[in-house]
Amino acid sequence: MVKLVLITHGNLGEALLDTASVICCCAKKNITAFSVSGKVDLNELETKIKKSFAKEETLIMVDSFGGTSSNIALKCFAENNNISIACGVNLNMVLSALNNQSKMNLTELTAKVIADGKKAILEATELIKK
Fold it and tell me: pTM for this one?
């Protein structure tokens, strides 16, 4: 089973995780959310994140590329290549990850999560105009 890690600014990761676990009626197992803020010691946070998955295959989902959350994830990847990083996390991505983490390997899961996340980004008004 692929380990899941959310690294987001503020409480976004916890909110996404809480909402997804209600929607899919699943337990929050093998998934951890970490918050990045001005009040958090980033070195301490990085250490906690690394300890949360050790050497397991892990999909890290972050809120934005180029921000603190992705920079921390990239540091983790530099030390452990059993990691994949998906940026731009949204609710569909978390739902997909939770529903598929025990069915797919890391490479397959990463592709599925990103594809499902992209499907959720659209202009809904265009759909009803057709």
Answer: 0.91
